[in-house]
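Marked as duplicate of an earlier ticket. Keeping the data here for the record.
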Amino acid sequence: MSMAQRTELLVIGAGPYGLSVAANAQEHGIETVVLGRPMDFWRTQMPANMCLRSGPDWHLDAAGVHTLEAFLEERRIGPTELDPIPLEVFVDYTDWFRVNKRLDVSERMVVELTKPNERFEAVLESGERIAARWVVAAPGIRHFATVPSWAAQVPRERAAHASELVHFDELAGARVLIVGGRQSAYEWAALIGEAGAKRIDIVHRHRVPRFERVSWKFADAYVEETLRTRGWWRRLPQEERDVLEAQFWEVGRLTLEWWLTPRLARAPLHQWPGTQVVDIVPGHGHTEVALTLSNGERLTVDRIVFATGYKADITKVPYLHGMLDRIEMKEGFPVLDESFGTSVDGLYVTGFAATHDFGPVFGFVKGSAASATIIVEDVMLRRR
């Protein structure tokens, strides 16, 4: 067996959180290997014409130098020229960030992570091995897509989670049901309408959300407090947590983006708020699906899109299976210390899977630079 490659820090995942912590670690002189396909989920599981909900102030750089605003300035694009910011612009920014940080991302994939001794060992698809003192797992949301229980009754070729359906040409002339009523549901409705769908029905249990311009500036103080006081979120009284979570719910869930309104007005959209699917019958030859809603309405559709979000469950991250008996968990989340450390010494988890102990902002790009700062500070302390 060949000798394992050795490094101080191994970062698994090359999305916003992985890139951010890897760049910060490298700038602090920590020998770092980062594995993954850069921004792969953003490139392959988000529609090309998607737009971001955030502004130009959200970025990846813990040093505050190679920011999205700096990228736009270099490209001579005024911050107000992109409103909203197209997905492709942000992905281009992350490529620019990697180049400027001289961050070498290896597109080798980890299939297993263990800790047989004081070092971790990652086994790659190729059979190669990497030994590391510390590991940052940044799994993003890819493994956490959730669908309703009745989804199992739908023929596989007739349904998909929103993250699995990002090319819409095949839906021209189709009757499409979207299950869910938040941003992705309505943005997919606009995109599917623009692709020429014959009819779009959107079903959700809550009332129709508002479509307004909102500000995410309240999250700035949240991030600053997280950096100022280690463990800040978990020490907050429950009443104060509830207030902050209500703000995120109001801005991120109850209110959708204003720029969807004219696009939805052009779509063949039928809304069914306050309802849910109660019965489903696959059609003849699995070419269509008949559904009954809780209000008695009956629909026949060609495709179903589950815009039903994500729910953290660390047991679904394949490369962590060998560590699960050692990772303390709560409600699917890893239990983390004030530095994003798990119960396995030297293993950190960041991003969406860290939101239980660090709060909802760490499910957004906004939290990436702060997470990178905290993790790297902890590693630097351990190196002494």
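See parent ticket for discussion. The first strand starts at residue 5 and ends at 12.
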